[in-house]
Design goal:
The protein is of the alpha/beta class. The protein is about 40% helix and about 15% strand. A 6-stranded parallel sheet has the order 2-1-3-4-5-11, with helices on both faces. A 6-stranded mixed sheet has the order 7-6-8-9-10-12, with helices on both faces. It is elongated.
Amino acid sequence: MPSLRVLSAASSLCLAVVVGACAPAAAPAPPAQAPAAQQPAAAAPGAQVNANTYIPVISKGFQHQFWQAVKLGSENAAKDLNVKITFEGPENESQVDKQMEMLQAAINKKPQALCFAALDSKAAIPLLQKAKDQNIPVIGFDSGVDSDIPLATAATDNIKAAAAAADKMASLIGMSGDVAIIAHDQTSRTGIDRVKGFTDQIKAKYQNIKIVATQYGGGDQLKSTDLAKAILQANPNLKGMFGANEGSAIGVLNGVKESGKTGKVVVIGYDSGQQQLDAIRSGAESGAITQDPIGIGFKCVEAAYKAIKGEKLDKNIDTGFKYYDKTNIDASDVAPLLYK
């Protein structure tokens, strides 16, 4: 049905050109529309999703096999949902500035949504606010930010998982003695929560266990090795060490080995990778917490897809975890979660 606006314009023209009786040469102009350049470039929630829908996935890194597994999951989701993604991250997990450059570049491309795993839980907030202001839905994964801007975050409950690691440590060292933590950082949500989960659980439940050191190696194996050796030298009676991510755990393993303490210090890690898997099979590492990295990658892209369509999301998408050791490393509910 023609709009009242069009009818009004036509009627006015008829009155002005009586003789012509609305001749075709004087046809009214179509209703005014905003110029295309004034339309928002990013799709507002509720938009259609098609093969041209673009969702950048900005990770904390790519050097560890964990991130390659997350990448695989995000690519699987993109294929299933028929959308385009890119996956990138800085060379190492200490390069917050580099990650901010990647985030700014992604926003400049005006994607329909974006997925982001923060190296620093606060540093990214101004840029994420820019994304929100441009109607770009933000989905967190693995490591969230201290803001309500992300519509959802697909991640492990790291506090709960690290608490489970603390329980295993306590059991394996006989409920007493000195232990230490080597984590990747104290700025990302994962680094903060894993240290907190382990520390709080020890303090709350195990009065005869003392955490004598908590050090941060940036997820770098070599730096974490040096830290582990220094802790062992300063604490000759140390009974256990917790490595809070893949790089940290490998550093702990190397430090324990180079200090001649293999089999004398209980090592509990996080994630997997070939070196941890081999160490667990050999007994050098008692066990580790595994996340579901493929699931994390899939769920974040899936949530971004749903956000573009305007669907309601759960604020926290718990992707789960399991503790594994040589007794269940090949179990059907564990093996698929372990990457090499």
